[in-house]
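Whether sequence alone determines local backbone shape is best considered at the level of individual chains. In the encoding step, the backbone of a single protein was reduced to a row of integers, each denoting a local shape. For completeness, the protein is quoted in full, as a sequence line and a line of structure tokens.
***
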Amino acid sequence: MNCTCNRIFLASVLMALLVVSIVGCEVNRPSEGSKKAGEHISNTVTAVTETDPVPQNKNEDSADDPAIWVDTTDVLNSFTIGTDKKGGLATYDLDGNQLYYYADGNMNNCDLRYGFKLGDQQVDVLAASNRSSHSISLYLVKSRGVLKAAEARVITSEMQDEVYGLGMYRSAKTGKYYVFLNSKAGEVEQWELFASNNKVDAKLVRAWNLGTQTEGVAADDENGVVYIGEEVAGIFKFDAEPDGSTEGSLVATSTEENPDMHYDIEGLAIYATDSVNGYLVASSQGSYSYAVFERQGDNKYLGSFRITDGNFDGVEETDGIEITNVPLGSNYPKGMLVVQDGYNYDGEELVSQNFKYISWEAIEKLFVK
């Protein structure tokens, strides 16, 4: 009788431990970054607001990369687009309210450009890397958060590994529009967009390989360069024209020799102050921080900052980022930075991931003396 009781007791204890272990695994997703690695960075800002969470489980790493569409008729009707790599795309107003959700596949990164000629119209085009179909998904961006599918066909990548990072580029030299696409294996493709029967099609015009995992992409249209983040190596700058060299130059202070930078290098975005000058911003996922470089010249490193708790929770382990320099009302008098939040909290409770909005004015004050 005693042996039976002991066995029952032991089984109960083991079951309880198993339940605790499972719950713990669900709540504590494996971290790709370290809060401690960035604690020495004294520059901090707080979020003005945040978006509604993506419609995935709170333990899913799902939200990833934002884009910003500016409504030139009324900037207060501008909105953001956020990828959900477990289901689609969401659009959000400037207060962070979700406008629409498009369950069109596992979208990893997105970017947009204005003024693409389609028939007798000029339209705004959003591109997204679709991991469900190993392709580039294309949309026309309409007002009030509406996206309309625009690709003439399934634009399938020729890369061997899964599609991952993405960025768009409009050539100041030719006026042509391009999409840069990359993979976890370091492959990079450049696709030229063109109109086809009132839809948007694309053709592959260049391909190369960086060697290890890439993701973040930001093209500087005016200066004809594209920045690509090699996650455990740094940021590389390439000629963005399709006939340009595939030999990139390393932004020297974007490696871990810089004590503020900790791999992985993730999102990249550009803030222009004129046609040449401005800032290049990168999310340093390994230190829960953001590095700021000069846009011009050799991309001098200016410093880093963190997004800490304020009216909304702080930000950890950011993937994608985007910036606009267009003033968007009194909350964003010099534009705004949008970042993905890897650990989103409502008070003390972990909830599904989302995106945070930060006033660029608050960031600029840290680096313009």
